[in-house]
Amino acid sequence: MQSVFITGGTGYMGRRLIGALLAGGHRVRALVRRGSESKVPPGAQAVVGDALVAASYADRVAPCDTLVQLVGVAHPAPMMKDYIAVRSQVEQAIRDAGLNATVLRPWYVLGPGHRWPYLLLPFYKVCELIPSTRASAERLGLVTLPRMVAALVHAVEHPAQGVRVLEVPQIRRTAFYE
């Protein structure tokens, strides 16, 4: 049993991850904005704070075995370059600090409210068959929400030694679910 602290616990993936972790016997605390405490799934503890202001919650992260960072917003294409740059800086800071971490990099997670890309699946399959487009199609592939949650649970239950990065193909292979 792990003690897990989740940022973004009331969001698209966070609510489902909390449910899966609780079902697996883990203890879960979730960072939430004031007024969102009731959105945390039953069985998890809400920790009120602002994800963009570390001082509002940093002293309440410990004790935990695992921190899962799921705070996110929809990023229009022009902002993706900045998002990727910041993500790269954070990943480098984790490496520089000598921390253990698993970084999951899904391109797009399919699920409720996020289904329009299903229309692209035939295009992806064709691109995966063409040698010159295979690598990009696999790297930029689509991941289902249950598969992503399963990969996150797997990362919690099988901690990395050093920094482990899972792109779409690895997320698909790592995610065991019914």
Q: What's the CATH H-level superfamily name of the domain at 1-72?
A: NAD(P)-binding Rossmann-like Domain
Contiguous helical run count: 6
Radius of gyration: 17 Å
- What's the pLDDT, averaged over the residues? 89
Overall 3D geometry?
globular
* CATH class category name of the domain at 1-72: Alpha Beta
Largest sheet: 4 strands, parallel
| SSE arrangement, N to C | EHEEEHEEHHEHEH
Any idea of the CATH topology of the domain at 1-72?
Answer: Rossmann fold
Beta-strand content bin = 15-25%
Major sheet strand order: 3-2-1-4
Which blocks of ≥5 consecutive residues have pLDDT under 50?
none
Strand runs, count: 8
The span between the termini is 21 Å
Helix content: 25-40%
Q: What would you call the structural class?
A: alpha/beta
Oligomer: single chain
Give the second-level CATH assignment, the architecture of the domain at 1-72: 3-Layer(aba) Sandwich
Structure description:
The chain has 178 residues and is of the alpha/beta class. The chain is 38% helix and 20% strand. The protein has a domain at 1-72: Rossmann fold (3-Layer(aba) Sandwich), CATH 3.40.50.720. α1 (14-23) packs across α5 (145-157) and α3 crosses α4. The model has no long low-confidence stretch (mean pLDDT 89).
